[in-house]
Structures
1.
Amino acid sequence: MRAAFIEKPYDMKFINTPEPVIEKPDDIKIMIKFTGICGSEIHAYKGTHPTRLPPIISGHESSGIITEVGKAVKKFKPGDRVIVIPQKSCGICKDCIRGDENLCSEKAVLGTIKWQGSFGEYIIAPERTVLNIPDNISLEEGALAEPLSVAAHAVRISNVHLGTTVFIQGCGPIGIAILAMCRFAGAEKIIMSDISQYNMDIAKQIGANVVIYAKNQNIIDEISAITSGEGAEVVFIAVGNSETLNEAVQCTKNHGQIIEVAHFGNKDTPFNIKNFRWKEVSLLGSFMFVNKDFEIAMDALTNGKINVKPMISKIIPIEDCAAVMKMAYERSENFVKILFKF
Ligand SMILES: [Zn+2]
Ligand SMILES: [Zn+2]
């Protein structure tokens, strides 16, 4: 099969490699059609991701067509258009029983050393991780289900409701997916920030009320002006560094809430605790998604509650993976989401 292979840091190659095979009765073999490049794969490319370690076939945002099913598979057949929830949890620990599959310490994530990913033309996935793509959703949109699920989880655990004023730091794919889910949840005013005019324009198309250009506007002053000096009720961190973390506190209303969704890397992050305490702000982590978030994301797509097509900036043949990964890492061109196609 064809695959994009990260052999060592900063070295991605297009290769031909043997297909994975069905081993267990509940396994399903899927021919991948589209797979997105996530920020975590750029970390994998740099060799800085904790579990996506080269040499590796990474990839976890995908859609495809079933080519083969194991003996015990009941709900699917060859030819079905599907997506895969890219985490296999143990199903029996206390976290799994509570429905917190994302917190299971035994889970395997697609595109890591434990589970070969969708940058390969075929993957094997257990039946419980597979979902049908409804007829009115394209395979390209299906590949966005994973970032939308990350956003669904973040919004679902937040205090966002009808009428909430929200500030989202960052107009990357996760920031924009959070925007779409906040709109769906009934947020009233959504303010965003970024340093790329291209990404800011996409955020506006998808429904941001105000997008602050972080290069030459003072974010804290702007948020203060828009919210009559109070700050946003809920702030989502979708760009992870010390600056955004401390800025989030300053942009949050007294007694407001910060949801941390971004990858901060492995280093410690300086944080001004005093500002945080003096405003009695809550800070909540949001990690990946649970199965229910995938159902919510697919339902939102299927029933037209969100339109995220403008997020897809480029669709690139897998054969060109090396040049595209280098471009994505260097950000030498504008994009929100890049999909590889097989
Ligand atoms: Zn992702
Ligand atoms: Zn578990």
2.
Amino acid sequence: MKKIMIIDGGPRKNMNTAAMIEAFANGAKSVSEEIEAKTVRLYDIDYKGCRSCMACKLKGKPSNICVFKDDLKPVLEEIAYADGLVLASPIYMGETTGELHSFMERWTFPWLSYKDYSNNCPKHMPVVAIYTMNASPEQMDFVEKGVGMSEWIIQNTMKDFTRICACNTYQVKNYDRYEFAPNQAEVKQAWKDAHWEEDLQKAFDAGKQMAEKILA
Ligand SMILES: Cc1cc2nc3c(=O)[nH]c(=O)nc-3n(C[C@H](O)[C@H](O)[C@H](O)COP(=O)(O)O)c2cc1C
């Protein structure tokens, strides 16, 4: 079996990010029964970002996997030797969610040796980032520039990095309940009708591509 780990950095279980993840997983699994796509929901587990305990940099026994004991530790150990990774998040304040960012600190900081600044990532694997956001394609140059330093580290480490974005998402199930601009429901519905299936297809295709790459 080949394992794709999917890290869901969004809080909502049934909305846009979750739907993109499901499409990706279905695409990956459509290729072969040899593909396992396992989703971990960060909002369901108890952890914090890096505490700067420096245990990963101890003299004589450095570790390239975070050693801090909490609910994230077994997930990080599983990811370290997975065959592919998906990082999914709604965009909050122009960035990934805080939960995904905290995960990134725990995942990537142990790779870096302070002795010689080498990068000791345990295993290189294809990584796909899935972002969903309110911004339109014209407004999302902040994403094109790279969502923060952590994405830059992954791109440079893994080399095989793809980003998929679903823009202008349908943010709430019932626009009448909330204080949006008067025509928001219609505008969002029109965008959804024109683009959402295409976005899901992009996620499905990316899942297929990752699975094919892993099995090749
Ligand atoms: C706290 C918060 C901050 C947000 N910040 C942004 C933002 O900076 N840019 C943006 O395009 N959308 C922003 N959004 C919208 C979400 O990214 C968008 O609705 C996303 O698709 C929600 O994902 P979900 O349906 O999986 O929860 C924000 C939403 C929330 C709740």
